[in-house]
Amino acid sequence: MKQHKAQKKKKFMAKLDHINTITVLSLVTSSAKPLINLLFSLFLSFLRHLLSSLTTTKPPRKSAARDDVVAAADDAVLRHSSISRALSQTLYMVTEVPVSSRKYDPVRSLAEQIVENNSRRVNDSYRCDVLRDVNRYGLSEAFVRTLSRLERLVLERRGGDTCPGGLGDGKVVGWVVRAVRSVGEGVVDRLGGSSWGWGEEDEEVSRLDGGEKLAAELLWLADMMAACGVGAEAVRKWGEASELASVAHLAEPRLQSILVKITALLIKHAKELKTEETPNKKSSAQQQQQLQQSRKNMLVSWLPFLCQACNGAEAPALPTSEKIQVEKVIEESIETLLGEEEQEQVLSLWLHHFFSNPHSDWPNLQGCYARWCDRARNQYIARQPAKYNKL
């Protein structure tokens, strides 16, 4: 009897435990259901996003920063090539060797030979196309270095010619100082004395000769760069040299003559430049925009100098036929390669500097200016409301 009651009690307790377990599980499940639903929804959302990204993934586009990094890497590779170093070292020696040295012409000829041989091999096969980059890197480096030296020398000389205290034109004062120095040194030499602190050699003459040498080498480099198809860098750098352009008319006539020749050469070359063919439309558009900016900078920086440059018989810069040719190129560049606002900016600069200089007769862009006025007049009429138009 007692054993039977114990079994019944055991069964009852087992049923009670089962009921409690089910109750607890149901309570836990009901309380955790919102959390489970939330986690499940997040999982489905993540899965949909993952599938959509896998089906619509596109190759990454090259950014401007990436292009700059690639260009820098290419230049680093060029610097480590023997032929590139040979060209750079030879061009550096051209700058360092004085014109009076008998080694000057041979080292220039050696540099020309390296550039010409590189250009000749470019057409042999597609692999030799890298030699164009060798020329581009070496010549661009030499052009930038020489331009920087010339700009620094001209600015230093201009600072030396200025005289504080309102004593008139600094250029005239500089000439007077050099004349007095020259006369004084001549008298001292005849008396057999010392130079009284003026130095053993005329530093001014040395700097003048150095300026002409640097300018002549810039013309030489720009001509080679244009000939071997890498002149875009010369156009860009010359257009950015606005500080040199602003004081170039104060330089000696012979130096001005060379600067006029460089400007004329690069203005003609800038008009002939074209963007490189590329499958990337965005890259091509960027190249076109950069080319447009280079052309504008060239005219904005150097057109005022052309109007003010010394073109006398002492140092004729360009023959008459070439002046006419450059004049036509400038007009075509303004009318066909620049936008309306850029045309107005360039022609306004020309108007001011050409007519404010009583000795200037070139470049004469009066015809170009008149045509621009006609276009501006017609555009202004076209923008007027209909009530102003005659029936």
From TrEMBL:
InterPro entries, per database record: At3g05675-like (IPR038920)
Top-level lineage group = Eukaryota
Name listed for the protein in its UniProt record: Uncharacterized protein
Organism, as annotated: Stephania cephalantha
What taxonomic lineage is listed for the species of origin? Eukaryota, Viridiplantae, Streptophyta, Embryophyta, Tracheophyta
